[in-house]
Amino acid sequence: MLQRIATLIIRFRLALLLAMAAASTVVAWFATQIQVRTDLADLLPRDHAYVAVDRAFRTSFGSANMVSVMLEVRDGTIFRADVLRAVQGITRELEYVKGVNPFQINSLAARKMVEVRADDKGIETRPLMWPEVPEEGAGIEALKRAVLSNPLVFGRYVSADLGAALITADFYGNAIDHQAVFAQVGAILERYTLPGVTVHVVGEPVLYGWVEAHLPETIAVFAATMLLTAFILFVTSRSLRGTLLPLLAGLASAVWALGFARMLGFSFDPLVVVVAFLISARSVSHSVQVVAHFDDRVLLDGLSPPDAARSTITDLFKPGTLGVLTDAGGIAIVALTPIPLLEKVAIIGCIWVATILVTSVLLTPILLSYVPTPVGHRLRADVSPLLNRLLDGCARLALGRRRAWVPVVAAVIFAGSFAYSFHLSIGDASAGSPILWSDSPYNRAAAAINARFHGADRMFIVVAGSEPDAIKRPEVLKAMRDLQRFMEAQPEIGATVSIADLIPAINRTIHEGNPRYQDLPDDRLAIGEMLYFFGTGLDASDTALFFDAQYRNASITAFFTDRRGDTVATAIGRIKRYLAEHPVPDVEFRLAGGVVGNTAAINEIILGDQIRSIALALLVVVACCLLAYRDAGSGIVFMVPVLLSNTVTFCLMAAVGIGMNINTLPVAALGIGLGVDYAFYVVDRIREELARGRGLNAALHAALRGSGRAVLITGVTLCLSVFVWSASSLKFQAEMGLLMGVWLLVSATAALVLMPALVVVFKPAFVVGARRSGNGRPAADEALAWKCAGE
Amino acid sequence: MRRAVTLLAKAGPFLIIGGLIAAVFVVKLEPVVHAIPEPALAPRDLFFGAAAPGDGVLWMAGTDGKIVRSDDGGRTWRAQRSGTARTLQAIAAWSPAQAVAVGAGATVLTTADGGASWQPAAPSLDKPHRLLAAALAPDGRLWVAGEMGTLLVSADRGHSFAAAAEPRDVGLNGIAFADAARGWVVGEFGEIRHTVDGGRTWTTHEAAPRSLLATASCSGGAGVAVGLEGTVLLTADAGASWRPVATPTREPLFAVACADGRWTAVGDRGAALTGTPDGDSAAPLPLEGAPPTWRAALARAGDRLLTAGAGAGWIAAGRFLPFPG
Fold first, then answer.
1. How many domains does chain A have?
2. B 163-222 residues inside an 8 A Cβ radius of A
3. Do residues A409 and A337 share a domain?
4. Which domains, ranges and CATH numbers included, belong to chain B?
5. Is B44 in contact with A488 (Cβ distance < 8 A)?
6. Residues 6+ apart with CB under 8 A from A411
7. CB-based contacts of A242, cutoff 8 Å, min separation 6
8. Per the count of CB atoms within 10 A, which of A36, A191, A617, B77 is most buried?
9. Does the beta-carbon distance from A608 to B85 stay under 8 Å?
10. Is A217 an 8 Å CB contact of chain B?
11. CATH classification at residue A676
């Protein structure tokens, strides 16, 4: 059957080639239209309670898309006319940035930042520094005094040491254009540079602006990797076909995948470039196998190129398809995580992997069939003897007396890495953004803001009353205050703020500014009056950050100094437990909005799915093997490298401090599948050689020198190539490069050392049983099986 | 045996596959949540009362019924169970074992075991007024002042109280005694009263121009009262007469204490003043390292002053040394 198809393919090779070229041209046109950007809405899980709360309340209580600007005065305080004018100017100009929520721009200069004053006539509110900035001297001194006794501003928009001012601006979620925001905010800040004043900017739109600004570099790194790959392939294969065909396969795959993505209307997240590279690397690997097999057929068996190509198609169909299917299955599982970005990555990934079937399994052999005989080498220097020595060593190890040690060592590595992998953190593993280096301008700005203020990352909890005026009840305010006190015990929560802090401040004001009255009244009417006075002179949008117009819902905003997985999980877990133990009648505390709330939702989804994803990935391997070999045992054998790859990966991520987050998850899912690809080729080749009637010894040597050689070449090539990534300005890419290097190493080692030893030690029926058809000696085979079971 | 092994070899893969399928549907990881103890001194805490009864023992009391104690001169602090969530306004201690704390809602708490347990006492008041100040007279009696002219005295270390004045719509913010017989109270709208008969009768003075918020007794009948807009008044005759002194600040002053022949006052936005009881002016007290926030309590401990408010620490040799929190 396979042979007939292979014959047909070779017969119609020209037509197929032209068809592929035509199709490629069409998709290539689409591929050039692809948009590279991050859609922040895509990062949020569907149907998660936290995300629902965030969506419902973010326009009033503060969205995750917040930009924070800090003006830091090197000597002295911000109470200088020029600094105050800069604060005002930036606050005003931010209103004109594309996509900004003009009602949620906050700073000392915002109209809603009011001073509450009390005298004989009652209490009144008036803006601190709006519409005008005070002149030098007395005016500035008065402003400073007003700031010092204003808990809404002091410590929040003016640092406790008075040396820094903060300006925050919220952006509407959906169609935010990071590049535009990044550029416009940058231009505004440029206009307000002052001597002795440092400006720092952070926030999700700025972060993704930085990532997108690094795109040209990312592409350059990608290109450099490809060039290095080409060079090493040429050195090892010493032929143009061994160099160009794998690269062509990788390129064609990329073009097809991007073209399809564009047709489906997806944009391309710049951080997913890593995934793209991984899949292209797979395409290259498969293609190298094809070329190596073809060379064997021509050079060892003396076939003509078209015959050798046909034979290659037939022989490699099974391991090639198996590899592609398990890869596709692995990435498809990512789609089960209900986060749009991951679903899109999974769909593109699946298509991309599937294209390998066309490009490597079909395109490469067809092109090989055109190679002129005699097949020769372009490069005189030959690394083959070195490679062969290494490969023969692998075969000797598998066949030698110490072979039983190989699985034992693997088991020890598995146990050790399994135990350590529990240190893997779900979510970010470091403070600042894990995408960028800790000394990047962005992370330095984040650290500077965290040092001066309570924390740049926010989370809000909604205190939802069952009826209007619910939040005027003293017991509700006291419950909020107690929860805030409880939350602040966590060191990473720098502060919390709510209406329960506002009321005591007003209470103090109406008692001659005496701090002995800075507490919550027991009287609902008194609270209502204070809220009424606070609201006079302000729009509903100005008080919306704390409570709604009906006094039904209020917010508790917490400021986090970092967003590490552990920090967020601890915060959420503690709050949930506390709320369960301290219920308040007719009021519901709903978690959790803001950027930390979003992170919590994503992390919970990822953590909850972790075991399921690994189990499903293993089941995919088992199912594919069952299909290919009709033997349940085959699945178990191939599960070994997958498991090992999993635990080693997690272990490494934990050791290096790479967290499992929305960016690393798809890379890890795909990378783990890498562990089994090479094993398929080597084991299948052993099986094939045994089926041809060779002895175990000869079969092993042939398999290692054939498929094993290709494994070694691609392993070394890609491993060296990803070193280029460590030079990336994006820490994320450098870390993923490291991970990829390790996967390739684990994968190659498993295929060259572990799998042959497993075959010899355990003699799995689906490999050695194949002899039956080869030499017709079922009895001997039976004996072998018994022996294997008894061992 | 061989049969069992074969069976296992055959069944093994299916067992593993079954386990995986079970894992898909059953196992769901939950995040690990660490317990975090609440710090004794939290950033949210506001302290209004402080006491230093000796032997390195320090007490502070403040918002949400919080009472903290240090046994090592402020290096480490422990929160004590006060049993109330009301704002505590003052704390006074007879010894490291015996103390009283008073506060909002006519709250009075006493301890005889160093604060291991605090017992509520119920002064008989017409309404649960806020008690604002507590002072120990040299004869060991406890004096408590508060809103609506509340003035209470206890001779049994806070267990029972007698009213020492009729209710009036004026808040009494500070009280001090020079000896068993002579003492004074200060309060809202510049209210000053003094007694020469141990509190049986009180003489009301002409009001000072501003509300007075705190007072302290120095040695030999000298005393000092402070209040809004930087007001500082001095007495040399145990409250019988008062004279204002020039001050360099307009900030309200919330607390005052006497030590080593000098008085020290602290107030809003980092304000701190010092002077002598017989002087005629107040000088700014430089407090290096002090955040520009308010402080509402002072207590003398040896050659240092414990100060508390929005944050707490030592005042020593012109520097502010915050307590580790």
1. 4
2. 173, 211, 213
3. no
4. 46-133 (2.40.10), 170-314 (2.120.10.80)
5. yes
6. none
7. A233, A234, A236, A288, A291, A292, A295
8. A617
9. no
10. no
11. 1.20.1640.10
Distances, alpha carbon B291 to alpha carbons A93, A148, B312, in Å: 32, 10, 10
Query: Could you tell me if A697 and A759 are in contact, meaning their C-beta atoms sit under 8 angstroms apart?
Result: no
For residue A44, being part of any structural domain is answered with no
Q: Do B6 and A789 touch (CB under 8 A)?
A: yes
B12, B30, B296 member nearest A516 (Cβ) = B296
Pick the residue of A519, A603, A634 with the most B CBs within 10 A to test the interface with B by mutation.
A519
Residues A614 and A732 in one domain: yes
Q: Which of B33, B87, B254 sits opposite A569 (nearest CB)?
A: B33
Q: What is the pLDDT of residues A719-770, one digit of tens each?
A: 887 778 888 888 888 888 888 888 888 888 888 999 999 999 888 888 887 4
Is residue A786 a part of any domain in this protein?
Answer: no
State which of A536, A567, A593 marks the end of a domain.
A593
Question: Which residue does chain A place closest to B22, by CA atoms?
Answer: A615
pTM of the predicted protein model: 0.88
With CA atoms as reference, the chain B residue closest to A633 would be: B13
Residues with Cβ < 8 Å from B189, sequence gap 6 or more? B170, B207, B211
A203 and A263 fall within a common domain: no
| Preceding omega of A456 cis (within 30 degrees of 0) | no
Same-domain check for residues A69 and A173 = yes
State whether A155 and A20 are in the same domain. Answer: no
CB environment A303-314: b (16+ within 10 A), e (fewer): bebbbbbbbbbb
Q: A95 at the B interface (CB within 8 A)?
A: no
Give A101-131 pLDDT, tens digit per residue. Answer: 888 899 999 988 888 777 766 677 788 888 8
Domain interval for residue A576 = 441-593
Average pLDDT, chain A: 86
In a domain, A96, yes or no: yes
Mean pLDDT of B110-124: 92
Q: Which residue numbers in chain A have pLDDT < 70? A: 120-122, 174-175, 373-376, 378-380, 537, 672-675, 770-791
Closest CA to B161 of B123, B130, B111: B123
Output the DSSP codes for A731-767: HHHHHHHHHHHHHHHHHHHIIIIIHHHHHHHH--HHH
- Same domain for A613 and A671, yes or no, is yes
B46 in contact with chain A, both atoms CB, cutoff 8 A: yes
Please tell me what DSSP assigns to residue A707. I
* Nearest residue to A312 via CA among A538, A7, A555: A7
> Which residue, chain included where needed, has tokens 């506060």?
B103
Mutation choice for B interface testing from A145, A425, A483, A516 by most B CBs within 10 A: A516
Report residue A182 as tokens.
């990044």
Tell me: do A622 and A550 sit in the same domain: no
Residue given tokens 């070994």 in the structure block = A640
- Which residues between 66 and 85 in chain B have a beta carbon less than 8 angstroms from any beta carbon of chain A? 85
A474 in reach of chain B (CB within 8 A): no
CB proximity under 8 Å: A 139-158 to B: 145, 148-149
Chain A, window 492-511: residues with a beta carbon less than 8 angstroms from a chain B beta carbon = 495
Pair A86, A202 in one domain = yes
* DSSP-assigned letters across all residues of B30-58: -------PPPSS-TT-BEEEEEEEETTEE
